[in-house]
Amino acid sequence: MGQGERDLRLDFLRGVGQWMIFVDHIPYNFLNWFTLRNYGFCDAAEFFVYISGYSIGFAYGPAVRAGEMVAATKRLWTRAAQLYVAHIFLFLFFTAQISRAARRFDNPMYKDEFNVAQFLENPDVMIQQALLLKYKPVNLDVLPLYIVLVVAAPLILWGLLRRPTLTLVCSGLLYLVSRHFGWNLPSFPDGHWYFNPFAWQFLFVFGIWCGFGNGPQIRPWVKSLPNQILSWTIVVVALVIALSWNFEALYGLVPESIGKILYPIDKTSLAPVRLIHFLALLAIVVKLLPPDLPALRSEHLRPIILCGQRSLPVFCFGVILAFTAHWILVQVSGSIAMQILVSVGGIGLMTGVAWLATWYRTLPTLVTVPATVPVDHGDEVPAEAEKASIAEPSAPERVPTERA
Questions:
Q1: Does residue 402 form part of some domain?
Q2: Confidence (pTM)
Q3: What per-residue string of b and e applies to 232-252 under the rule 16 or more CB within 10 Å gives b?
Q4: Cα R_g (the chain), whole angstroms
Q5: How many domains does the chain have?
Q6: pLDDT in tens, 33-83
Q7: Is residue 64 part of a domain?
């Protein structure tokens, strides 16, 4: 990868994650069998959180080192505000879409299945709780987590600037303590956040730690033969266990003693086996996916790359499309052919949104902003993070303009 070029691996992995999330958000969908969650313990969520943290670390690290902490904080909190506005608009559109479908077709399943029944009964109370990020319909849990993590990012960057190893250790301790004592943020009217920020912050902080310039410290070990053997062993074992959940013939291969250790595999508080499985996959990706892989620049992968570069509008549109696809499968036909049609069609529409967002960015602007700290013009990966390697950052002296 030449100097100044984008690292398309970040775009590719984020794009693949976008497609997987969309497919997984469609209930009873045959194409779910082609997503990561059926072949191991973790899924696209872990990659999303890690890459988001890595992008912030690589994008804002040079500015923080240059003494621009206040400016970096302002930029990050502005980004968090943009994410918050996007989440609220998505919430309003999503609940309106489900409410209309439930009333139009006299099918209460929609409002119950997507957790909007109480919103229809008490809209004033539920809107207030939604503004506080305490009430979230199904499939709207990711953005609140990201908002909280981005708000906390300046503190993380400050810690990494002074004591990088200690900051990572403290993050790990918070992860362990939150799991032990059950710490989480409350939801409304009951329960807790689906993605526990006290637990998921560790993956985010680890991503920032790598992107901040610490990746080279672990790169030789990540690519070493012993670690690769260990990583592949973990992935294969996780594959067999995950397949045993759906294929009875494999169930006997998993000793009962192993099951007692593994279960429950909690996604809310990022169960250790999910974290270990993700780290094993990450090590394999770093080894097998070089930054200069010619396939990453092929036209065949262009749709995935675009969806990864324009992640915010693609994700929001994907949430809306997922319910539309579910409605079609319920009201029109639930055949496998229709499942494939709505899934592939939805991915095509998401790619169209990514293309429109890319085209919009080519339109002229009125203001030129000095490139002292990263400036966010949308939802894409920061340009400097796009140039970065997943665990192999090459820190520039100054930061170009863009975002995570």
A1: no
A2: 0.87
A3: eebbebbbebbbbeeeeeeee
A4: 21
A5: 1
A6: 999 999 999 999 999 999 999 989 988 999 999 999 999 999 999 999 999
A7: yes
